[in-house]
């Protein structure tokens, strides 16, 4: 705010003057009590005060707005309304990561993605801490005028409750999956083992496979001098025997991915309805998270007996969940509205959740922040904490991971700063 450029004494005087001006303006402009006005309506009334108008002029003079390269890129990628931009963002986070799976070898080791996972952690936590949480509790700064934050009873409590509900929704999902798979969680490492039951040790030579019993028969035949022909079965490809619990884990993983993608879609819609900047940065954070997430799930499906083509197809099917979540979020925002939409109808007092200025649409962004906190901490951090026995290798690996986290968070900070 422009008030920060004044001395402390003058700031206090201006704050008192603003309060008096607000009271006088409201009393003169309309015979309504402050309780009958929404927060947005009070904000509009404030902007008409002469003192606030002078503060706006001071802000525009001292903080000229410049269009950065990032803003230009975002304006090209997201040129429409919040609903259109939400759908475009869902296409961006769902399409490219899935198409990249065509370049992945079927035997890829998910643990090799630790650096990318660390980068995604930095991006998710950076977006949550630098963008989502400030937006949730304080709103976004306006380039044209000064903003005032009103402390409203129980409003912050409901926002905090929304964050907690989002966090524990993912706790419940993860716990349910662990119970269903017998203790194997849904994480990026996907450390699932295959059990192959072999009753006899096979000795492979070229394309022919002989069991120990066949070798003994052939040896006894030579000793007897007989001309009996030993027929062996040649197999070009041994069919893998997949443990049923591993197959079940693969299908349950698809269900968890579908649900996870729904929350990604909700994140797209809630963030774009909050502001274009928040929507764009959330898209970037989710995009970088989806790459290691999709590759790890792809590797798990391969281990569960899927072919490469079927695994890719299954990942595209789960991507439908993101579009479903986006459409649900758009419907909630358009039908449920938000506290700020009450300003469009000044003659109708707005009554929000539990007597606050919040609506159901306003609760989507806190829910998204809660899910991001879970994914960025509980779901992913344990993988980064895994260590091996070689200390020197682990130290170098840790340094690289921390650097990747710093880069991911730094990108979010730079976008917010500029």
TrEMBL record:
Return the Polar residues bias intervals: 198-212
Identify the main location.
Answer: membrane
Keyword annotations of the record: Membrane, Signal, Transmembrane, Transmembrane helix
Q: Which biological process, per GO, is one annotated for this protein?
A: intracellular zinc ion homeostasis
Q: Return the annotated region ranges for Disordered.
A: 182-241
Is Signal among this UniProt entry's keywords?
A: yes
> Where in the cell does this protein reside?
Membrane
Q: Name any one GO molecular function.
A: zinc ion transmembrane transporter activity
Q: Hey, what's the signal peptide range on this chain?
A: 1-29
Against InterPro entries, the record matches this protein to: ZIP
GO CC annotations, alphabetized = membrane
Q: Where do the TM regions start and end?
A: 73-93, 113-133, 153-173, 311-332, 363-386, 398-417
Classify the protein's membrane topology as the record does: Multi-pass membrane protein
Protein name, as recorded = Putative Imidazoleglycerol-phosphate dehydratase
The protein's organism comes out as Aspergillus calidoustus
